[in-house]
User: What shape does this take?
Amino acid sequence: MSEIELPLFADRHNHPYLYATLRAGLDLSQAECGEQAADWIRRRLAEQPPADGEFLLCHGWSSGLGEMPHALLEQPAGVVLFHRSLHQLQINSRAAAQLARSYPDEVQKLEDRKWFELNFQRVLNWFAGVGLTAAGLEEFYRWQRSLGVGYVEELLCCGSRELALFAEAGLSSRTRFWASPATWEQLNEAERREVYGLKLFLDGALGSWTAALLEPYSDQPEHRGFLLYDDYELAELIYRLAPSGKGLAIHAIGDAATQQAVRICRQLGTRLHGFAEVRLEHAQLITREDAEWARRLGLMLCLQPNFSIDSTDYLERLGEQRARLNNPFRMLIDEIGFEPGIDLLFGTDGMPHGAEFAIRQGFSPPFPEQQLTLAELSAGFSGAPVGEGRIVCLCDDELREIRVVLAE
Ligand SMILES: [Zn+2]
Assistant: This one.
């Protein structure tokens, strides 16, 4: 048995502001069925009824369980339920009525999958930061440290209020802010200097059948998910953003989306040099040819070892063969030459938070093609401030124990 010590992780893809907000809500990630979740919701509403005009934010619902039956959501207060992927949202009629006061047109469209994906950031902004204080944000970061994470990158910056709250909490150096072009537009000069990069979504997520696939979903033979932009629109948008000198993070999960990202980046060529860096976020499904092109173009990849488990959780929708191609770390590292910590970064996306699940999924994933060594995991998650603690892994062939030891 050997004991291996790793520095605290830098989580390169997460949403600290939204998750700090949701932490005050109800965690349904352990729910095994709708009835059980409804029971927890009922109990929570009885113990802590939301103030007038507010709602109970539930999170972590696994879409592996399907939709939460709507009738079960009808409770005596407004209830908003985020699926684990965040790319699916269910609200009860009271929450709909409350939201309609501020967003009368948008609330009608929430069920429209494409509208939702196109307006993802906008909808999350309705909820992110509600009731969150600097103390709440500090608590979130303390909790992250206890989970072995000393730095948490923000891939969905919600704007001025978030930037101000991070500054107030003294946490601005513990993150990097990535903002959508729409959020960016609303910031003043000083705020724009705080923002590290711009974030675009090319598709949705596997959890909500909205990731764009080259071949149809195995359980929905007519459906391939969808791309949110056509090529021309996307090229024009990236071209327009390049002179900002910021980073560019491109969310692309399905192989049709990673292919589109690579195709457009090839077309834009040297115009991409306006960006400080260009990252593909998730890239869970990427063909070898596109991965080769991505490396040749100097794109960075930011993947989530956590999501290797999608090969099991979403086996039915991916199909046996494609499930094996999810998170192809060995291909990216051994065959294409991506290097963890250099041009291959890791994040958790908060699904779930912390080092342990990421290490376990990296070390013993569903398929050998997804396996990572502890050294590779540590490099891909590197960059947190040093001296605040360490992650101790006890292992032989298997990982026996993982614990976080914080400095006093
Ligand atoms: Zn994310």
